[in-house]
Amino acid sequence: MTQSLPQRMYLLGYDTEKNRLDPASAVVRGSLLRAAAVADLVLAGRLTDRDGKAERTVAAGLAPEDPFLAKVLEDAPGAKPRRWLTVVDRDWHRAEDIVRDQLAAAGTITVGKHRAMGIFPVRDITLADPPQAEGLRERVRDVVLSGRDPAAVPIEDAVLAVLAAEGDVHTVFSAKENRAHRSAIKALAAHVDTVLPGLRKALRYAVAARRSVSG
User: Fold this and answer.
1) Which of 7, 60, 164, 182 is most buried, judged by most C-beta within 10 A?
2) Cα(148)–Cα(109) distance, rounded to whole angstroms?
């Protein structure tokens, strides 16, 4: 079964060497997953941009089988267009739990629990197939590091690369790589903006909001 963009975004944040999720992007993970879901819906033709706002299309009449995508689509009612930020940011705090549970149900990950210092509950995430996740990560990294023409790469990989860069997902691009490949990332982002107008701007606001609260 093909994994949704939110599911792939979650797996990109997993550090296969340390067997844990990337701590640098933890606070914005929910926003990244919501943004990935919105991108998935746009690429599937269920959402479109109308005068700078998100609007359902005729194709949205048939809800996605994926319950997370279906829920995100519900947050863009057909009555009138809604701001992209509203769709990206709504219920962001629930996104990680939903996507994690989907991956666990599919057997892609297993989820255990322990208590740090004997007090604080902590989830232990384990990948069923680490090489598969590593292959996904390298494919997304290559979109930027190869220097290829942004228009020549698969749009889903381009979207994931841009989301990872915007969210400082260090399992995909380290801070040093983000700086070193700034021009390539900027060119890729410009291409993604033509396909998914409004998404990256909305994510930037959401990420800024999460990080401002976390200090």
Assistant:
1) 164
2) 32
